Amino acid sequence: MQIAIDESGPTAKVVLTGRLDIAGAEVVAMPLATLAGNKDNIAIDMSGVSFVASIGLRHLVATAKVVVRRGGRLVLVDTRPAVAEVITVSGLADLLHMEQA
Amino acid sequence: MTDRIEKILAVDDVAENRDILVRRLRRLGFADIDQAADGVAALDAMKSKTYDLVLLDIMMPELDGFGVLEALKRDGRIHHIPVIVISALSEIEPVVRCIELGAEDFLFKPFNPTLLRARVLSTLEKKALRDRTREELKRKHFELNEARTLQLSLVPPPFSGDAAGRRLAIDVVLEPAKEVGGDLVDHFRIGDDLVVLVLGDVSDKGAGAALMMARTHAMVRGLSARPDAAALFREPERAVGIVNAALAEGNAACMFVTFVLATLDLATGRFSYIRAGHIPPFHRRADGTVARLTCLSGPPLGLAETAVYKPDAVMLAPGDRIMIVTDGFTEARGADGALYGEEKIGDFVAGLAPDEVAPLGRLVETIRAYEAGQPASDDIAAVLLTMEPGDAA
Fold first, then answer.
1. Is the ipTM, as predicted for this complex, more than 0.85?
2. How far A3 CA sits from the closest chain B CA (Å)?
3. Among A58, A88, A94, whose Cβ lies nearest the Cβ of B256?
4. Angle B315-B320-B325 (CA atoms, 0-180°, nearest 5)?
């Protein structure tokens, strides 16, 4: 799992590539948590995420909650169908807004 | 001099060598030092006393250093007693052979006091670390196994018998992937008419998830003991709302629980349920068709304190079955990496013989066979309710 963050604009752009499993979640935990503390608007490019486990979902959800609590917004962009389905079926689609670019 | 408590055995056939060694060790602060003049005497001494370190000469009569090491290797004691072999400067090969037999380190004689000090102290430090780690692991393992026993005891046994005029069977299974896990399964009666099924999956594995599982389990049971429990569980969205609010409070780690709570009214056959982000349950009708209970009532528990859950209901007739599983079943990985999948679970339920009311053990075996010996990747839990055809006997 690789994470790339661009904080230059008003909306922070995050690009995730790989599997958001236990190992992948460990890679993104700290950067996402730090980002959530600084930025009100975060867009996560999910086109490169092939798999997401509940531990990975937890980190995405935690990030979303922190941002939303401050009145901000987190969106997942270009989520792959299989991953989108996991998010929808898990009832998390309201917290993790999904959009197509 | 610092008083060291370690017990040392010095083995050398030449008395003068033993004396020098013992004197040097005493100067390092060691007080409990025994001596042996050959391998036989050394093994004898080790029979009645557990030494923390043995300094072993190689060339000795009766039984040499190799013989002592072989004896220690045979009964496994070499793994608990560090041995430093002592050799004359010209003998590298014997030292190598001793290391291969399990000696920890070596020293050349005549002793350099600095080297003696360094080797002895570092060997003892290594042993202390190893012993501490071993003890710690043993203790943790014991504790976790205790916790496992407790967690498994939270699951009620399967039920088969008469309930409010109907023949009912409930099969149940829970197998954490590690010692403890985050899957939850429960079933209980409220009064005569209501049967409640509970199945949950905490978003993690291990001890933290097990704690969340236990909290959730206890809260549901707590609600079932309220005087208004029957009314509360007839509207399962209310019960789930209360549990969710409690779990969401102060949940900074955002651990969540995908959840199914269902109440069957035996008098009417009405099966009302809440599905909070969990795999849709399977509803097998008496005619053999399998439908899914797809209503998405709301988010998993623990995330949104004020979430309101939407209930749904189906009517169950005699011969119907309801199966609820956690994703440990559907996401079990085969040898080729492919997931077991929801379809196969549906087929399993569809293919059950009418009198088979406790088949979950067989399903678990199928999953394990599918995983082909790989360690379990996730906790598994399932509950199967069967309304048997015909009235109660």
1. no
2. 21
3. A58
4. 95
